[in-house]
Amino acid sequence: LMIRRPPRSTPRPSRRQRQMCIRDRCRSESLLRSALAITPDVTLAKPLTNIMLRDGRASEAVCLVEDVLARSTRKAVLRLLLAEVLMESGQADKARLLLERLKDSRYPAIGPKARSLLNEISVRETLTRGSALEEAGDLLAATEAYREALEKEPNHRNALRSLARVQCAQHDYEGATETYRQISQQSWATVYDLKKLARALLTRASELEEAGDLPAAGEAYREVLEKVPDHRDALRSLARVQYAQHDYEGAAKTYRQISQQSWATVYDLNETSKLVQAIFAGFGTASANKLEAIVAGRQRPIGEVAWASLALSRWYNFTGEYERA
Fold it and tell me: Quick one: which of 147, 195, 198, 200 has its CA closest to 172?
């Protein structure tokens, strides 16, 4: 069997893995073809067509299924497989003609599957129309097309992601947030979907903050941190909102969390010092003693020790103990 070798620029372990995958696929294809020559059965044709479709040989897969269909007695199941292969090869019209004949089949496994595939064809056509409208700049019409696709098949992966993308392009961050929330609840959601949700929530929270709705903005920032813990912008923004609401205790916890991050900067420590200055009235000697223990013990992360040192020096300045400061 001929093995296609990966380019020389590919790292050696990856090259070896890819070579093995190609070799295994070729061997599987050879075995399946030999078996199909003897027994034209759908259980052999389906994995072989999957290999071909994965390699981008859709037209070859169509010819294979048509050949097996001509020699097999299980016509209905193979016609269903042929319709699926035609869909993947971009021949939706031919696939629709086959499925229209199969949707009322007397076999219980054929009819529902045929109707599901007909619906999938309709959804794909709607998504194609929405994509064309989006490329033409007609975002409102594209939004309607994507919503129409979701009416036909709720939780459709491409429809949800496309709708969220268009909503962000229209600055409808409230709608995009809801769509990304729906995406994050799906089994197929990825880390990238969660990051996009976080980005939409951050933008929405910023709008709320600018509008003066600080409680709602704080909730949005907390939701970002639930999805992506220790998110840099979310932590800094939450601390800022808490400070603006005079929630100094909450802001102190958030700034302490910031100071323990590897990305914390002098700017973050300066913001912490402003916070400490604001809460000195209720700071108390007991709190100063705790900070002294942190600084003296140095058992904590370096960020927390630095935070405690800065806070303690501000406290000594506040109480007039300048030498200790």
Answer: 200
pTM over 0.70: no
Amino acid at 99: L
Tokens of 176: 């995009």
Rounded CA separation 184/191 (Å): 9
What is the three-class DSSP state of 279?
Answer: coil
Residues 284-308: pLDDT tens digits? 555 666 667 767 765 566 666 776 7
pLDDT for position 143: 93
Task: Give the total residue count for the chain.
Answer: 325
Contact status, residue 139 vs residue 166, Cβ threshold 8 Å = yes
Residue 297: count other Cβ atoms within 10 Å of its Cβ: 10
Annotate 93-137 with DSSP letters as a single string.
Answer: HHHHHHHHHHTT-SSTTTHHHHHHHHHHHHHHHHHHHHHHHHHTT
CA 117 and chain centroid, separation: 26
Q: What is the DSSP string of 206-231?
A: HHHHHTT-HHHHHHHHHHHHHHSTT-
pLDDT digits (tens, 9 = 90+) for 192-210: 888 888 888 888 888 888 8
**C-alpha span between 265 and 191 (Å, rounded):** 26
In one-letter notation, the amino acid at residue 109 is: A
* Confidence class for position 159, pLDDT limits 50, 70, 90: very high
Q: Using the predicted structure, report yes or no on whether residue 72 has a pLDDT greater than 70.
A: yes
Instruction: Say how far apart CA 20 and CA 224 lie, in whole Å.
Output: 42
- Residues 220 and 234: their CA atoms lie apart, in Å, by 9
